[in-house]
Amino acid sequence: MKKRLFIMLLICSGAVSAETVSLNTADSAPYSTMDSTGFYDVLLEDVFSRLGLGVHINHYPSERSIQWADEGHDDGEFARISGLSDTFDNLLEVREPLVSFQFVAVKRAEDSFRINGWEDLKNLRIGFLNGWKIYEMQLGSYPEVTRYDNVESMVNVLLAGRVDVILYSELRMNNYIRKNKVEGIEIIHPPLTVRTMHLYLHEDHAALVDKVNEQLREIKSSGLYEEYYKKYLMQ
Fold first, then answer.
1. What whole-number distance in Å separates Cα of residue 17 and Cα of residue 10?
2. CA distances from residue 77 to 23, 62, 92, 224 in whole angstroms, order as listed
3. For the whole model, what pTM was predicted?
4. What are the CA-CA distances from residue 190 to residues 114, 117, 187 (Å)?
5. Is 162 helix (H, G, I), strand (E, B) or coil?
6. Model pLDDT, residue 141
């Protein structure tokens, strides 16, 4: 199987020499951008540069992003909820979180209903992005669920009244609303859930998992993580 990560482990010294780690993501601004200036992009570039590695980030639809990483076409995938190694057998979770996500429901501003938890969604028409595993797991038995390929389509069907709510992350929704000057929709509070989000690496690179975990912790303890968070996520 062709791999895009060229790693040489120097057993005697314990050092790592390599070229580039190929990572997949379905994330968008402000977390990851096509020009690699998002929060995750900058954070992961720092993490892997400390290990002597470059990073190449591929932007794919959510389902393809994680499937291709699991199949070994690329070296890893981010950012996903914890526990997906049980479903994707070839992916190893880096336990130190990249960030926490607020997973929210979004409705038309004119609608007056409230949502305080997953059960309140059961009788609504729901839309979310294909490949978002947390929603697939939570809503698997709900009767009216539609998956969409992109956020633009999802927002448009909400505005048209063809679904009652769409499900997304709060920061990404706010970014989309601001960037596209969307009116007539609003995020419902409180969030449906708050979960930590993680990097996963293909099992071929198991030797990197603890090293990446250690560097993430070091960046957090040094104060750099807080700087990145404020600069890229709190604008």
1. 8
2. 5, 10, 10, 23
3. 0.86
4. 10, 8, 9
5. coil
6. 85
Q: Please give the Cα distance from 206 to 47 (Å, whole number).
A: 16
Q: Which letter does DSSP use for residue 188 in this model?
A: -
How far apart, in whole angstroms, are the C-alpha atoms of residue 168 and residue 209?
28
> Do 56 and 96 form a contact (C-beta atoms < 8 A)?
no
Radius of gyration of the chain (CA): 19
Q: How far is CA 152 from the centre of its chain?
A: 18
Q: DSSP 3-state assignment of 194?
A: strand
Q: What is the pLDDT of residues 161-218, one digit of tens each?
A: 999 999 999 999 999 999 999 999 999 999 999 999 999 999 999 999 999 999 999 9
Q: Beta-carbon neighbour count of residue 172 at 10 Å? A: 19
Q: At 192, list the tokens.
A: 């449906």
What one-character-per-residue DSSP string does 51-97 give?
TT-EEEEEE--HHHHHHHHHTTSSSEEEEEETTGGGTSTTEEE-SS-
Structure tokens at 199: 């990097």
C-beta separation of 6 from 184 below 8 A: no
d(CA 130, CA 148): 6
Two tokens, residue 185? 């929709």
Is residue 142 exposed (0-12), middle (13-18) or buried (19+ Cβ within 10 Å)?
Answer: middle
- What does the alpha-carbon distance between residue 127 and residue 107 come to, in Å, rounded to a whole number? 11
